[in-house]
Design goal:
CATH architecture: 3-Layer(aba) Sandwich
CATH superfamily: Alpha/Beta hydrolase fold, catalytic domain
Helix content: 25-40%
Radius of gyration: 19 Å
Shape: globular
Largest sheet: 8 strands, mixed
Number of domains: 1
CATH class: Alpha Beta
Number of strands: 11
Order of helices and strands: EEEHEHEHEHEHHEEHEHEHH
Strand order of the largest sheet: 1-2-4-3-5-6-10-11
Length: 302
Amino acid sequence: MKKTETYTARVTCRSARHDIRGVAYHVSEWGDRGNPLLVLLHGWGDCGRSFQFLVDELKQEWFVIAPDWRGFGKTGSRANSYWFPDYVADLDVLLARYQPQEPVNLLGHSMGANVIGLYAGIMPERVAAFVNVEGFGLKDSDLQDAPANYRRWIEKSRVMPKYASYATFEELAQWIRKRNPSVSPDKAMFVAKQWAEQVDDGTVTLRADPAHKLPNAVLYRRAEALACWSKITAPVLQVVGEDTDFTVAAKSWIETAAGAAPPNGAETIVIPDAGHMVHFEQPGRLAAVIEAFFQESSQAVV
């Protein structure tokens, strides 16, 4: 069987390490530090380096950084549980390390966009412009479910879950393409080698803390998220894949969030031939959209 070649990056990536709130963070960096800063934040199960395809398509000169969230990729973890506000606080420290004075251009995908959505309302003076790629939040919770949810969390926590392992990187790359048909074989292989590592028995295992699979002890409250959105002052662009897996969630979130960030609202752009992983499937189209948005934004640092 012929092995799949791996995508060759056009823009060189560097690795940086930072201690952020007691966690050893890994950050991917591209471009000259003297260029305008652009921060890219990945979603659940992903890692910062997978933004390589998007970085390769950018036309402007940027200094791009993309951290691996705690417990994902090459970033460490502190415990066997994860509290969502920790991501928000981690982001604040990260931005202070790279650009402590001026507001920052931020792009988040999925979970990363949800982190920014909270942060941009909590610390609006720190955000110049915000691109939300497929970050729709979760279904609202019924607070009466709290006792059962706590019980479920306790019971599930008794035995640490495991991620699936793969015989080879090729097998993982095939799984990635099955879920994201527009991704070319070489890009799927590149992502596979960023997401996973080969362990002693020769199998391939995801670089992620299995504790991420545990249920959250605290119920998601959509009203809290929207309250934060209502305090956003930066321009907001929402990007949705035309073939997203989250069609219902996207419609609901677009309708509510479009008017939830005064005074700018939230414009929405749909990217054709893309599902949830827009930055994998259509990096060129996404790059064109976001650079136009940042350039047009009166608050963007360009």
